[in-house]
Design goal:
The protein is an alpha/beta fold. The chain has three domains: 58 residues, Orthogonal Bundle (Arc Repressor Mutant, subunit A), CATH 1.10.10; 39 residues; 174 residues, Nucleotidyltransferase, domain 5 (2-Layer Sandwich). The protein contains 13 helices and five strands. It has a five-stranded mixed sheet with strand order 3-2-1-4-5, sandwiched between helices. Strand 2 and strand 3 form a beta hairpin.
Length: 312
């Protein structure tokens, strides 16, 4: 039961007050002791004497009779039309009802938004068992700047870095260990993207990780012949996400969000060059120091060594 925030008495307090009255206290004395009016004390005494399991609980404020209540068959029609993906105004026009009435009923039915009609796709979590079985690649576009922005000075009205260009954060994350490799490159074109892939695979190989599969989205650079040739040379299979389904590449997406929060926007930078210089130290800390909740509090470096059977 939801008791009003300013209520002097709860059902337990009401029972105690009534009990005092029945033991011989006057209504006035009991009302004063419990901080309510005589009228309130008398009301709860009368309800108690009338009996009932919930006699000392608040009653619903809804009217007992509602002559103008929307008929059940009308509500059923509204629901049926909504499940045909009709908008609220269209339903109101079809049934000759007020938009506000239809909107209220739809909200009561839990169908206030059309998205409520679509079944939620269950979250399927997966994790490869060995480092290198799958690596995730993605790119994040970040604006360059050469003057202090609002994140430093707190004022959006001050000068902006006009036509400063873009930085492209390329990321590679191992599925099993979360070991990450990053670079800031001048573009997201096929040449830079392919070169990043080759350097990422070589970096992982130096740490004992042989890449078998590479997951990417369907960006043009990832669909290029140059990228395909690099994959073939590395002996890795290309796995693409389903269109408009970024969660399939969720580990790269999650890593990018973490990097934005802790690196790109984690502290102020005077210019984008300073920000770019900070990505490698941050990535090293991510791999070597920062515990990861998705791998039971281990760091990615600890995780990869555990999976590879290394002691260090």
């Amino acid at each position: 039961m939801n008791v009003h925030e300013n209520a002097r008495l709860t059902p337990v307090g009401r029972a105690l007050m009534v009990d005092r009255i029945e033991q011989g206290w006057s209504v006035a004395r009991a009302a004063e002791a419990f901080g309510v009016s005589r009228r309130t004390a008398g009301k709860w005494l009368q309800r108690h004497r009338r009996g009932g399991e919930r006699r000392l609980h608040d009653r619903s404020s809804a009217p007992r009779r509602c002559p103008r209540k929307t008929p059940a068959w009308t509500i059923d029609k509204i629901q049926a039309l909504r499940r045909q993906h009709m908008t609220g105004p269209a339903i109101a026009q079809t049934l000759g009802l007020a938009r506000s009435t239809v909107g209220l009923i739809l909200r009561r039915l839990g169908l206030g938004k059309l998205s409520a009609l679509d079944p939620k796709i269950p979250i399927v979590r997966y994790e490869r068992s060995a480092p290198g079985e799958m690596i995730h690649l993605d790119i994040k576009k970040l604006g360059k700047f050469n003057v202090e922005g609002h994140r430093i000075n707190g004022d959006r009205r001050l000068g902006r870095s006009r036509r400063a260009g873009w930085d492209f954060l390329h990321v590679c994350v191992d599925d099993a260990s979360r070991l990450a490799y990053t670079e800031i490159l001048p573009s997201e074109g096929q040449a830079d993207t392919t070169a990043f892939l080759e350097r990422a695979i070589a970096w992982l190989a130096r740490h004992g990780v042989a890449v078998q599969r590479v997951m990417t989205d369907n960006g043009s650079a990832y669909r290029s012949k140059l990228f395909a040739s690099a994959l073939q040379a590395a002996g890795a299979r290309h796995v693409r996400t389903r269109p408009y389904t970024p969660r399939t590449n969720g580990k790269a997406e999650r890593f990018i969000q973490t990097s934005l929060r802790e690196w790109a926007y984690g502290r102020p930078y005077a210019c984008s060059d300073d920000r770019a210089k900070a990505i490698k130290p941050w990535t090293d800390a991510y791999n070597l120091v920062r515990p990861h909740s998705g791998i039971k509090g281990l760091t990615p470096w600890q995780r990869v060594n555990n999976l590879l059977g290394n002691d260090s």
